[in-house]
């Protein structure tokens, strides 16, 4: 929490405005409020991993994060949490944040509100049964949403999380390629999109992502960056009201 206080102070020194471009880029606010980072240039990063839990790559990733003592955020698929609840529990017990990434990874642009509610609810239930905690962060599959999507998320007392740095790790041929994409986009303050799993099948090879994570953390720690969970980073944004009375600029 000391670290949060420090970073919060640094942020308060500048105007905490958020210039969301109203287009369908991941950080667009057009279809409702969502979180993709804080003031650009602030030396904080939130690494996020989608499409897990994935056996064995999620556990390998946990080893790397533990080695650097860095927290991250995992957006899990309900169907995989049901297959490997023990991995979801390991993620939580290692101190990382867990979010909902839907149950079956549908593109929400083509989904009804009823389908969205069901996807969210079944995944919340799977995560709660595996870890004892109900998630309140939600990341839409493929980043897809349309008018109404985030309204449903809000009605369910959850908060949508997007990203500002895309690492294209799902198609990368090497860890270096992933690191290069990240480097090109990181200015500070971003939520970074990575994948510990693949939405099409359990066991998707994420060795490049695991290695790239190792390199990225070492490089940006050297540059003085601090790594936060999405939940921690959101507390640096006084304009965001977290559900359940969480967050805010305490102290
Ligand atoms: Zn996904």
Features:
9 helices; TIM Barrel; binds zinc ion; 38% helix; single chain; 251 residues
Report on this structure.
- The chain has 251 residues and is of the alpha/beta class.
- It has a single domain (2-7, 37-244), classed as TIM Barrel, CATH 3.20.20.370.
- The protein is 38% helix and 12% strand.
- It has helices spanning 2-12, 57-68, 78-83, 85-93, 113-131, 149-155, 175-185, 207-222, 230-234, and strands at residues 44-52, 73-76, 97-100, 137-138, 159-160, 165-166, 191-195, 226-227.
- Strands 1, 2, 3, 6, 7 and 8 form a six-stranded parallel beta sheet that branches.
- Helix 7 packs across helix 8.
- It is globular and about 45 Å long.
- Mean pLDDT is 88; it is low at 9-23 and 245-251.
- The structure holds zinc ion.
- Zinc ion binds at residues 50-51, 101, 105, 141, 199.
What fraction of residues sit in β-strands?
5-15%
| Unique ligands | zinc ion
Tally of helical runs: 9
CATH superfamily: Glycoside hydrolase/deacetylase
Give the H and E element order: HEHEHHEHEHEEHEHEH
| Main sheet summary | 6 strands, parallel
Roughly how many Å apart are the termini? 11 Å
Give me the CATH architecture, please.
Alpha-Beta Barrel
Per DSSP E runs of 2 or more residues, the count of β-strands stands at: 8
The share of residues in helices is 25-40%
Overall 3D shape: globular
Report the C-alpha radius of gyration, rounded: 17 Å
Give the uncertain stretches in residue-range form: 9-23, 245-251
Determine the structural class based on helices, strands and strand pairing: alpha/beta
The number of distinct structural domains comes to: 1
Overall mean confidence score, pLDDT: 88
CATH class: Alpha Beta
